[in-house]
Design goal:
Helix content: 55-70%
Distance between the termini: 61 Å
Number of helices: 14
Order of helices and strands: HHHHHHHHHHHHHH
Radius of gyration: 25 Å
Number of strands: 0
Structural class: mainly alpha
Largest sheet: none
Shape: flat
Number of domains: 2
Length: 291
């Protein structure tokens, strides 16, 4: 496999020989996507197959540029390892995103603008009552977790959780059906009916969430930290995740996972798996409290 990289070229260009090598080994990208991404193979992925394949093709081109036969040996194993890493990272970083076609976004924004113009108050008309329902962004981005009430963890855990200022928890954990695909106005506004008890029920539900959310998250953190066989670095990661992400409901105030991984010196996947375990623990605790 000598001579794959005949000379160094700029990042945005490939020589003719390198292009031929990329075309010869493009099947590695398809094999990597089908072998490493189970959800893509079952056609259940939020990302489309061609997006994952494109990431693999880009990794293949980069492998052609950097391959040195004397140091790296055969080209196929060298390229396949980098293709799998690139595809897995892309699938992991984009697994929670929901893509909407651009034309659908335009139509939805047009319907929303039309509904706002129809509902704009005229001269002498009192302003409409504030809708107590939480916004879609609040529901999608509020901290989702569950844990059980009970005795808290150690002194370090209590100190970290106590330093975080109290915040108003959004009701993202309650069973609720939200229609995010249609741009129609709220049913109560559309039909002119207003429920006088809606604000009182919303306040009671908010108070209930505030009562159970803190102990639930504290219990979930305690369970994760007390898992047998966990190292001190893992417990430190849990404490930092709780202080910088899990206890902060505002999405713009949360520390990004990439920055958190850089600060801890670990991979993004390790933090993502830790957050999945936290959500399962916290969800069980909230279900036990009847939330």
């Amino acid at each position: 496999m000598t001579g794959l990289v005949e000379r160094r070229v700029p990042l945005g260009a490939l020589s003719c020989a390198q292009r031929r090598v990329v075309e010869r080994y493009l099947w590695l990208a398809s094999a990597a996507v089908r072998k490493t991404c189970v959800v893509a193979r079952a056609n259940r992925a939020g990302r489309e197959f061609r997006d994952l394949w494109q990431e693999g093709a880009l990794a293949l081109a980069e492998a052609v540029r950097t391959h040195d036969p004397a140091r790296h040996g055969d080209f196929a194993p060298y390229a396949l390892a980098r293709i799998r890493f690139s595809v897995s990272r892309y699938a992991q970083e984009n697994s929670c995103a929901i893509r909407v076609p651009y034309i659908t976004q335009r139509r939805r924004r047009a319907r929303l603008r039309a509904s706002e113009l129809d509902e704009s108050p005229g001269e002498g008309t009192p302003p409409p009552a504030e809708d107590p329902s939480p916004s879609r962004d609040t529901l999608n981005n509020a901290c989702v977790g569950d844990g059980q009430d009970g005795a808290g963890g150690g002194e370090d855990e209590e100190l970290i959780l106590a330093d975080v200022p109290a915040r108003r928890w959004e009701p993202a954990l309650l069973p609720r059906v939200v229609n995010i695909g249609c741009g129609s106005p709220h049913p109560r506004r559309a039909h002119g009916r207003h429920d006088p008890d809606a604000r009182a029920r919303e306040g009671a539900r908010q108070r209930r969430l505030e009562e159970v959310m803190g102990p639930a998250i504290r219990e979930a953190v305690r369970k994760l930290k007390s898992t047998p066989g966990r190292s001190a670095d893992y417990r430190r990661m849990i404490e930092l995740c709780a202080a910088e992400r899990w206890l902060i409901p505002e999405p713009e105030a949360k520390l990004p996972i990439r920055e958190l991984a850089r600060r801890l010196g670990c991979s993004i996947g390790r933090i993502t798996r830790c957050e999945e375990r936290f959500r399962r623990e916290a969800a069980g605790a909230l279900r036990e409290r009847g939330v």
